[in-house]
Amino acid sequence: MADKTSDGAGAAGQASADGRFHRQTAQFRSTISPEGSAEFPAEAGRYVLYINYGCPWAHRTNIVLHLKGLEKIIQKVVLYHELTPEGWIFNGLDGTDSKDPLYGFTRIRDLYHKADPAYDKRCTVPVLWDRVRETIVNNESAEIIRMFYSAFDGLVPEERRTASLPGGGYLPPALRAEIEAMNGWVYDDVNNGVYRTGFASTQATYEERVLPLFAALDRLEAHLGEARGPYLFGAHVSEADIRLYPTIVRFDVAYHHFFRCNLRMVRHGYPRLHAWLQRLYWDEGVESNGGAFRKTTNFDHIKRGYANVFKDRIVPMGPDPHILPLEE
């Protein structure tokens, strides 16, 4: 979910005159390296990950933080889940941080301006911050998760290192081309597709966006029917699963209602995709490192955050339950 600029244009304000939603490109694109001589070397306690639990882009970074066992190596700071006129803020409500623990800031915008006083774009999460250089390393979730895959492997237990993970890790070389191909259309039509649908400001644009979204869900359902295992690319969790999960876990509880993505619900219209979601959410074994997907999912923050985007003072109670239990 995008933050606001100083002119007050929030995520919904990213729709152009023709009613189409446009997402801002991340501005900070540096990389953490295991090499000690690098500009941003992997060191325990040096980096801070800023997120909120409502944002799907931040969610994917939090999932990998837990999958890799990086919680004691990279500090996590949680902002409030509702977008305010000041953008994403710290206020201590609902288990979030009361202020920035490094500088005492009350807005994420203050952190962006510390990194670059001339920065004038939306101030989004996630943000990966370097305590030593006092700047933003990266604010692109797709790049942050890839750093987390292996940059800190010298600091995590051997069983969580990429070389030890079954199947070759989250982006195995043998599957990389296929995973990246899926990432492309899933991003366009599903991850970003729900936003393009929800923030469409004309009927024609809404109809133009909602049909490709459900066509992509149909495609995922068919893919899972042909997959050689319970996950998108076989017997083990891959980057494709990590990138898709934050959208699908929000679908029935938020996007179906708030974003009018209501041709079908996942739980009723997509049995394979629904089973995939249940398996990821409820797993507490080695594959999820003790429940990384469930532990990073906060349905209250998700629903309240999206209700606030549309200034809806009523937060829907359902669906009940948020995730159906696994069948015996």
Name the helicity range: 25-40%
Which sequence of SSEs, written as H and E, runs from N to C? EHEHEEHHHHHHHHH
In spatial order, strands of the major sheet run 2-1-3-4
Strand content: 5-15%
- Which structural category fits the helices and strands? mainly alpha
- The protein's oligomeric status is single chain
Q: What is the CA-CA span between the terminal residues? A: 36 Å
Shape descriptor:
globular
Instruction: Detail the poorly predicted runs.
Output: 1-10
**Largest β-sheet summary:** 4 strands, mixed
| Rg of Cα set | 19 Å
Q: How many DSSP helices? A: 11
- Average the pLDDT over all residues and give the rounded result: 93
Strand tally: 4
Summary tags:
single chain, 328 residues, mainly alpha, four-stranded mixed beta sheet, 39% helix, 5% strand, globular, disordered N terminus
Structural description of this entry:
- This protein is mainly alpha-helical and 328 residues long.
- It is 39% helix and 5% strand.
- The chain is built from 11 helices and 4 strands.
- The longest helix is centred in the middle third of the chain and has 24 residues, at 203-226.
- Residues 1-10 have low confidence and may be disordered.
Task: Kindly summarize this structure in a few lines.
This protein is mainly α and 328 residues long. The protein has 11 helices and 4 strands, in the order βαβαββααααααααα.
How would the blueprint of this fold be written?
Blueprint: E1 47-51, H1 56-67, E2 75-78, H2 108-115, E3 127-130, E4 135-138, H3 141-150, H4 176-191, H5 193-198, H6 203-226, H7 239-258, H8 266-269, H9 271-282, H10 292-295, H11 299-309
Parallel strand pairs: 1-2
Antiparallel strand pairs: 1-3, 3-4
